[in-house]
Amino acid sequence: MRVWKIKGRLVSEMKMTEAILGAIRENMRHAKSGAFYEKCFAGIEPADVRTDRDFQKLPFTEKEDLRDAYPMGLCAVPEERIIRIHSSSGTTGTPVIIPYTRKDVDDWAFMFSRCYETAGVTQKDIVHITPGYGLWTAGIGFQLGAELLGAMTVPMGPGNTDKQITMMMDMKSTVLCATSSYALLLAEKISSRGVRDKIHLSRALIGSERWGEKMRRRIASELGVRLYDIYGLTEIYGPGIGISCDGECGMHMWTDFLYYEIIDPRNGKRVKEGDVGELVITTLQKEGAPLVRYRTHDLTRELPGDCVCGRPYPRIDTLIGRSDDMVKVKGAIIYPSSADGVLSKIDGVSSEYQIMIDHLNGKDIVTVFFETEETGDDSMAVLEKTVKDSFKETIGIMIVAKAVALGDLPRSEKKSTRIFDNRY
Ligand SMILES: [Zn+2]
Fold first, then answer.
1. From the CA of 304, how far away is ligand 1's center (Å)?
2. What is the pLDDT of residues 204-242, one digit of tens each?
3. Domain layout of the chain by residue ranges
4. Strand partners, 299
5. How far apart are CA 97 and CA 154, in angstroms?
6. How far is the CA of 104 from the centre of ligand 1 (A)?
7. What is the pLDDT of residue 8?
8. What SS3 class is residue 164?
9. Which of 68, 283, 357, 379 could form a disulfide with 374 if both were Cys (CB 3.0 to 4.6 A apart)?
10. Which residues pair with 1 in a beta bridge?
11. What is the Cβ-side half-sphere exposure of residue 89, based on CA atoms within 13 angstroms?
12. How many A from CA of 254 to the centre of ligand 1?
C-alpha cells in the first residue's frame, strides 16, 4: 500500500518544512482548479506561499463557505473522476457535499486501516460496526478500513440493540466500533441481559467527541474492552484521520495526508506550543475536495515529545470541546462544559447559571450568577464562597459569585446561552 512520503521521509513533525510547503503549494494549485477555491484564492498565487508566514496569511475555510458551494462547487476534478459523495448535514439548512475520487476513497481506507493497526486490530478480528451507513461517512469508513486490513466485518449500522447483542454473541465479535453513547447503551443492555460472559469484545474504537472520564471507565469495565478514540470529520475524508494508541496519551494524526495547526479561535493566530486552541486542517493529497486551512472548531492541544509507542506521527490531545463555546479570560479558558462540571458538583446549586464577562478599569471581571433554593443571606453567602473557591481551584480564575433565587435567570426555549462576553 502507498505510504506517501515527502523526499523519502514521513511527514511527522508539525514544524513547517520546505517539503510540506511544497506539498501545500501543490494542493493549492490543485484546489484552484475547482470553482470554490478559484474564488477564495482570487489574487493569491500558490507560488507566493514561500514561508510558513506566507501560509499563515492565507484565509481560513469555514463550514459555512462550503455550504455556499452546494452542490458540487467544491469539486476540483472533472466530475467523471468522482466515484462517490458524502455529506455532512450540520444543524442548519443546506448540507455540505464532499466529492471523492478513487484515490480519495483508497487513501481514506488506508488511513483507517492504519487506525485499526494502531489499535492492535488484526486480520483475525471480527469487527462489529454500529455507526450509520449512507451519506454520512462513519459506517462506511469503519467498513473500508477493516476490509482493507483483512478483518471480518459485521456491518450492523445503528439501532435494534437486542439484535446487535445476539449477533455480537453469535459472531463472537472482538472489536466494537461505536459512538460513546451507543457503546454505553450496549454495555448497559449486555449487563441487564446478563450475557457479559458470552461477549468476546476486547477492543472498542469510539468516534471522538468530548466524553467524560467517568463514562469512559464505565464502558471499558462493563464491556471488558480497551478503548481507542478515533478522530475525523466528513469534510476531511471522515473518521480515521487519527487515533489514540496503547500509550493512551492523545491521538496520533496521519500527517502524511494532512497538515494541521492549532490556532486561537479569537484572533486566528497560532497558539504557543502545547496551548489549547482550535484544530485547523489542510489536506495534502485530497483530489475531489481539497481543503486549505479548514477550521474544525474542535478544541485540543498539540502534545509535545515522542509517544511511548514509538510511532512517528504527532499527537493531539483528546478533544475538550468546541471553539464556538469557549471564552478566554485572564489567561484561562472557560467553556460551558467546564463551568457545568464545577457547578454540578456543588450541592444546593441548581442547573441554571449565567456567566458575565466584563472589562472594567483595565481588568476582566467574571461574574457567575447561579440559582439556588437557599433563601437565607448567610447560607447564600456560604454557597457563593464555595462556588468562588471551586472556580479558582478547578479552572484557575477568580470570579465574583452571585446567588439568585430559583427562576430569576431568564429561560429560553432554544439552547440557552450561558456565557456572555461583554468585553468586545
Ligand atoms: Zn502512540
1. 12
2. 999 866 666 767 888 899 999 999 999 999 999 999 999
3. 1-325, 328-421
4. 278, 321
5. 27
6. 25
7. 41
8. helix
9. 379
10. none
11. 4
12. 12
